[in-house]
Amino acid sequence: MAADAPGTLPVQLVEQPRLQKLKEMFISKFGSAPKFYVRAPGRVNLIGEHIDYCGYAVLPMAIEQDILIAVEPVKTQVVHLANTKSSYLDFSTSVNNIQINKTKPQWHNYFLCGLKGIQEHFGLNNPTGMNCLLDGTIPPSSGLSSSSALVCCAGLVTLRANGKTLSKVELAEICTKSERYIGTEGGGMDQSISFLAEEGTAKLIEFSPLRATDVRLPSGAAFVIANSCVEMNKAATSHYNIRVMECRLATKLLSKSKGLDWKKTLRLHDVQTELGVSLEEMLTIVEEVLHPEPYSTEEICKCLGISLQELRSQILSQNTQDVSTFKLYQRAKHVYSEAARVLEFKKICNEPPANAIQLLGELMNQSYISCREMYECSCPELDRLVDICLQFGAIGSRLTGAGWGGCTVSMVPTDKLNTFLKNVKKAYYQTDVQRLALENNSLFATKPGRGALVFVEA
Prior knowledge:
Layout: E1 8-11, H1 17-30, E2 36-47, E3 59-74, E4 78-83, E5 91-94, H2 107-122, E6 129-136, H3 146-161, H4 168-178, H5 189-196, E7 202-206, E8 211-215, E9 221-227, H6 239-257, H7 268-275, H8 279-289, E10 295-296, H9 297-304, H10 308-315, E11 325-326, H11 329-350, H12 356-373, H13 380-391, E12 396-400, E13 407-413, H14 417-429, H15 433-438, E14 443-446, E15 453-457
Parallel strand pairs: 1-15, 4-6
Antiparallel strand pairs: 2-3, 2-15, 3-6, 4-5, 7-8, 9-13, 9-14, 10-11, 12-13
Helix pairs in contact: 2-3, 2-4, 3-4, 3-5, 4-5, 6-11, 8-11, 11-12, 13-14
């Protein structure tokens, strides 16, 4: 039942080589043994890109790759963070003085986001210090949500170390808010699936209120993740936050044109709700109200009847203050059409017709074209990778995650899976020395995995 708290699983370490190895590394690092372990998975979004922060439902599943942290609560009020990969430097700080540096999205700052979120939620005056050793198997900046998995893992670590409990939904909502400490204006999909995922099923995640519904994926098809090997860090680049602002500005202009209280309307979903119309009707309204040419800040101010100063102080986020033009028509068209594709995808999964796999593949392909043309969040390497995947037998293929790099997800008939993997490996990875080095972790079929958990030694 998703509404409850994350589970605690007693395990025999001899049967868990990764936990055993982490324990040994922990002892050699800190001189004592961990008291518990926390795991939070990454995710792949099957369809519904860049629409969670607009209020629309998305359709992700958890993957096997995860963040795993060994933890020992300590008497001193210091948190010591170490990583099994030596390229990630150790970090220590007082738990009473959490400073998160937005200018450098280093790995430990994501841990601090989760830590701070739990501290603030409970108003902890005397939070527990901790020794933590982290082991991650999610490729960083790949669009598989390594950063949110780390925030979620840290949130659950802090909760457990301080003897508190929360439901999965509450944890997801706290971790969504707390990731904004690092400057990512995310919508909540990544944190929600990390906590609410269940083995064997994808989830339709809906917001306001947050809820998750099982979506059974069709038998006869595998979902394959392929990493373009182009890294994209959401907190370090402005693309992502500019898109969030473009959607917010489109919301304001659409609201004003329809006589709604535009100052209070924040998300594209709110406009549809207020007007009480379908997604198809919203697409018609976008055509009527917005123009395809980019909007200057002057034109936006004129449309809303506000000054540039008011635009900057009341609407634009800190890291989009200097952007001078915004594409509103294209972004709104993507969001409303993508929201409709998500619902159609779920409907086909729930009541599969004979050609279900074909139909789902077409929706994935339409989603990709919209991401590339309307949302402009692809890149040449992703375009090439999608072409290769479709060429070698994928029924549908699209970028997943924020884009501008990271991964594609492809739906491949099970009977073609092995030849598909072999051909994609040859065409994309073996033609490039850098990709060849990353090849082993870059191309794999995945099944829906379970959500965040606490492990204790049995």
